[in-house]
Structure formats: C-alpha cells, structure tokens
C-alpha cells in the first residue's frame, strides 16, 4: 500500500515531540527557580503540586509549539522560494520527494524525549537534525539543479538563516541592554 499522504502528519508529531522535550526541561528549570526564590510553597497554597506542574507544562508546550510551528512555516517558505529561484523543476515533483525527509524529524523528536535533562543536548540534536534534513533536501532536489543552482540554493539558505538568527540575537541583546540601563 503506497499513499503519498502517509507521512503528512509527521511534521505535527515532530513539532509536538520537540515542544514536549524542551517544555519538560524548562519546566524543571522554572520549578527549581520557584523553589529557590521561595515562591513554590506559596503557589502550593492555591494549586496542587500536580496542578502547578501540569499547567506550567501545558503553557510551555504551547509556547514551544508556536515557536517550532513558526520556524517550520518559515523554513518551508524559504525552501520553496529557493526552489523557485534555483530549480529547473516547474511541476513540484521534487517537493513531493522531499516529504519523506519528515522521518528525520520524527526520529529526532522521539530521541529528544530522552535528552530532556540537558538543554545543550536538546539544542544540538535539533540543530543536527536540521542540518541532516537540509543535506537530505539538497541531495533529493540535486537532480533538478545545476551546479550554480545548487551553490545558489545553499548560499540562499545559509544567508537567510544566518541573518534571521543574528537579527534575533541583536534584538535580544538590545532588549537586555535597555533593561540593564533602566535599572537604578
């Protein structure tokens, strides 16, 4: 049985798994900080311990789900835009072949559940997964690219994501500096 849509739900499951993994780590960190600041006991007067943990986990999963969904939307748009600029494929057959790469994210999402103890390992797994998927993407669509088209696609991706990350870091740095400057 072969169905083109058999892997259509893999991106959603992968996003949920990565969101859960990052949320579990951040939940543990926030709970440690609440205990350290002495706020956790006060919160337990109004909510049960499990209620606090479940509510915090739900909100964090929701937050990470939104972040990863936005990143997927941006990545899909950038991939398809680079295909528009550099590919000879006008019918979209190459994009159909690329969909099987969602297995990469699904397997990594499952692995991420075992790495919830360390955010560095989680982040490294996510970045490594993105790199593997990008390599798979380039390999899969290489039949519709010239050498210059392949170079253009790689540079387009690298320049876009580098600029995107640098802009986010710059905005965070500016916000941090303005916060520090406003302290008495």
From TrEMBL:
Q: Please report a single Pfam family linked to this protein.
A: DUF5366
Top-rank taxon of the source lineage equals Bacteria
What InterPro entries does this protein map onto? Answer: DUF5366
Is Chloroplast one of the keywords UniProt gives this record? no
Q: Where are the transmembrane segments?
A: 12-31, 51-75, 96-114, 120-141, 153-176
Instruction: Provide the alphabetized UniProt keywords.
Output: Membrane, Transmembrane, Transmembrane helix
Q: What is this protein called?
A: YufK family protein
Say which species the protein is native to: Alkalihalobacillus trypoxylicola
């Amino acid at each position: 049985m072969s169905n083109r849509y058999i892997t259509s739900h893999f991106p959603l499951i992968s996003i949920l798994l990565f969101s859960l993994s990052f949320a579990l780590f951040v939940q543990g960190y926030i709970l440690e900080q609440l205990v350290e600041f002495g706020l956790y006991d006060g919160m337990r007067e109004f909510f049960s311990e499990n209620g606090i943990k479940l509510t915090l986990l739900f909100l964090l999963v929701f937050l990470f789900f939104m972040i990863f969904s936005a990143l997927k939307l941006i990545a899909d748009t950038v991939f398809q835009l680079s295909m528009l600029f550099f590919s000879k494929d006008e019918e979209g057959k190459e994009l159909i072949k690329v969909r099987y790469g969602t297995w990469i994210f699904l397997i990594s999402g499952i692995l991420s559940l075992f790495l919830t103890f360390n955010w560095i390992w989680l982040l490294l797994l996510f970045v490594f997964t993105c790199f593997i998927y990008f390599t798979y993407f380039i390999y899969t669509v290489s039949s519709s690219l010239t050498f210059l088209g392949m170079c253009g696609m790689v540079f387009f991706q690298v320049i876009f994501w580098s600029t995107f990350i640098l802009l986010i870091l710059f905005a965070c740095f500016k916000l941090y500096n303005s916060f520090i400057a406003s302290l008495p």
